[in-house]
Amino acid sequence: MGFHSERKAERAIDDPFLGWLAKHNAILEREQIERLELPPQDTLIRDVARSYFRQMSAEICVPFVHVDQSEIPRIGEGQLIGVLNLGRRAGKRGSFTQQEIELLTRLCTPVTLALENALLHEARLKLQENQVQAEFIAAASGALAHSIKNPLGLLDGDVDLLRDALAAEENEGADFAVLDIEAQVRKIEGIVNQIRNADIGPPDLAPCDLGVIIEEVLAEVKTANPQSSVQVNAAGDDIPEILGDASQLRLALTNLLMNAYQAMSPAGGTLFIHTAVTRYQHTPAIQVKVCDTGCGMPQNFIQQIMNRPFITRKKTGTGLGVWTTKKIIEAHNGNLALTSQEGVGTTATVILPTSTPS
Description:
Blueprint: H1 16-24, E1 28-29, H2 45-56, E2 60-66, E3 79-86, H3 98-166, H4 172-197, E4 206-208, H5 210-224, E5 231-236, E6 242-244, H6 246-263, E7 270-280, E8 283-292, H7 299-307, H8 321-331, E9 335-341, E10 345-353
Parallel strand pairs: 5-7
Antiparallel strand pairs: 1-2, 2-3, 4-6, 7-8, 8-10, 9-10
């Protein structure tokens, strides 16, 4: 049998029709839409189904649903992992024959298994890559931080001795030099802390209030940038507690807010923080958006900082902030997405499930 095939617009996995299709896990033909017997809570499904078939130019829709007990990261049992949309048969009219429908039904199981195996293989490769990367970063960051911290402590002590020695003398040049040395020591300490923080272990999960964490982090970032002319606009839903590691989430949000402030320095701008209750992977979740009106980034640079450490455009940056943040969010079974436009600004979207499965 021949079919007309054409690439159509993609639909989000949270599309209500796809959710209904996954729940029923059965082939659906266009001509069956009007005959569907729907309960009151699903009365809108008929309209969204019509829209779906029209947008996809489909005559038949074949769902592939994960029903196996094998554990696939971020894929729950009963979740849709693929859809086959078939259009009109080339050179033929009329609906599909019963024999063709039976053939498609028999193909569902092997195709679903193939998709599950592909997802498992991809997840294992990603896990191996992350483990190798994490082991390297842990070893390198620990050694580097230790090597810098010791002489830095001696330098800090020497500054104190120098300040005491100059206390009895009036020498503005020397006083300024001491203050500048102290400022540079603080900067180096900040870099050392960033390197140490890159070695992130498994989260210690407990109920935590993400709204309170955001407020505290924002206050700390404002204090760290006293000369900044950034205006803050914070709004959103009242959000419930989530199951997470408060210290790790605090670090992740600090990285994002600090990056936003730095992107708007020295010109200033507006920082938007918005929280909302949403759903992610078919489970209740919290969404936090951090938007700035700073310099922005090209798309290729976003891909680099999201997937590789030590990538930075800042003169004093380590290139570990976004990479570390992404590790933390993913360890909580969440998601971090960055969108940006040069000269316009950047938006970081964090999604965290309210309860993190073990």
